[in-house]
Structure formats: structure tokens, C-alpha cells
Amino acid sequence: MDSLVTNTLSNDINILKLSLNLFLIIIKRFRQHLKEQIALFINRVLLVILESENLGFDHKVVVLEVLFNLSLKCEYLVEFYINYDCSMSYNAVFYDLLNLITKIINGFYKKSKFTSLLKQNQEKTLRLKWFEFLTQFIHNLSDLVEKNLSSEISTTTVANENKDADNTNEEEFRESIASSQPTSGETVSNSLLTGLVDKSAFFGKP
Questions:
Q1: What stretches of the chain adopt beta strand conformation (E)?
Q2: Span 65-101, pLDDT tens digits
Q3: Could you please report the per-residue DSSP string of 1-26?
Q4: What angle do CA 8, 13, 16 make, to 5 degrees?
Q5: CA-CA-CA-CA torsion for 179, 180, 186, 191, nearest 10 degrees?
Q6: Of 51, 45, 57, 61, nearest to 10 (Cα)?
Q7: Which is higher by pLDDT, 6 or 122?
Q8: Global confidence as pTM
């Protein structure tokens, strides 16, 4: 991972693209096993490139494209928050990333130290692109929450329907038992007396 970090910070834009594509593969397929390395890469590569006064527009756009790719399935970014920001063992990776993006949208690259690095139209493009990224992420996050909520409601409804069906079956069973069995000694006595009276009437009086 150290060599990947070093290569990614190269001035060669093609090496940067290859390294970031490899980073995407790591996140999508091996994130369960490389949790610490992913946090290291975000802090030492993505944030560094975005804040760099030496790596220009093309480098920053490539980082934007990578994160935009991740935002299309926002579970990845949500996992950043869960695994890093909610853990005492790591820095708040998701917060730091989102905080920097918000600064960029609000004119971070308008500072004098970036004037020789980014043209005015490039600074404006980055602001708009990051705003699109943030909007896309919020939209996808909303869809994810709604999907999970609908699934939970559906599961709860099915469980309640099954419970009601069980209760109905139990009540019907109890009623059938009650109707087929005498409820008291008095009922049994009355039945026996009725039978004796009927039998006496059938045989006639002595």
C-alpha cells in the first residue's frame, strides 16, 4: 500500500489514474480485509491531492471522478462513516472528506495560494462538479434510506399478518375444543338425565 500511495502522488496523470482505479477495486472487493490501508490512502492521497498547491486541475478532477464513482453506490461512503468516524481507533475520515468538499464548494480554491495553479474557469468547474457530487450523494443516500425503510415496513407487515393468522387459528382451535367437550359436571348430568328420560319414553311406562 505504501508503494501505491507513492505512485499515486506522482506528477504523471496516467500513473495517478491507474493507482486510483486500483484503489476502487480494493474498496469494492477487499475493503473488509484492508480497512486500515483504505483509511491511510484516503488521508495520504485523496485529501492531500485536493489540498495540494502543486498538483493541478487534472489531478483534482481525477480524484473527483473516483469519489463520484463511489457515490453512485453510496453504501461505500456510508461505510466510511461507520467504520472510521464511529470508531475510536481512526480519524473521522468521512467528516474530513466531506468538510474539505464543502470548503471547495464555498471557494477554497479562490485562495491566493491556488491562483497560479488553477485558472478562474477551472476553479468554477471544480466548485460545480463537487456540488454535483454532493447532490448526487445526498440523493442516493435518501433512496437508500427509503429502500431500507420500505423493506423494514414490509417485513413488519408480513410478521404481523402471520401473527394475526396464528392468533385466529388458535382462537378457532379453542372454540372447537370448547364446543366438543362438556364445560361442567352439570352439563354432563343434564345430558345423562335427558337420555334416561328419552329411553323411558321409548320403552313406555311399566
A1: none
A2: 999 888 888 888 888 999 999 988 888 999 999 999 9
A3: -HHHHHHHTSS-HHHHHHHHHHHHHH
A4: 25
A5: 120
A6: 45
A7: 122
A8: 0.69
- Structure-derived torsion over alpha carbons of residues 38, 43, 49, 50, reported in degrees to the nearest 10: 110
Grid cell of 180 as nine digits: 366438543
> Cα–Cα distance between 127 and 110 in angstroms, integer?
10
The pLDDT value given to residue 206: 39
Supply 184's cell numbers.
361442567
Q: What are phi and psi of 184, to 5 degrees?
A: -160, 165
C-alpha cell of 129? 462538479
The three grid cell numbers given for residue 2, joined into one nine-digit string: 505504501
Question: What dihedral angle (degrees, nearest 10) is formed by the CA atoms of 89, 95, 97, 101?
Answer: -170
Cα separation of 80 and 50, whole Å? 18
Determine contact, residues 118/57, Cβ cutoff 8 Å: yes
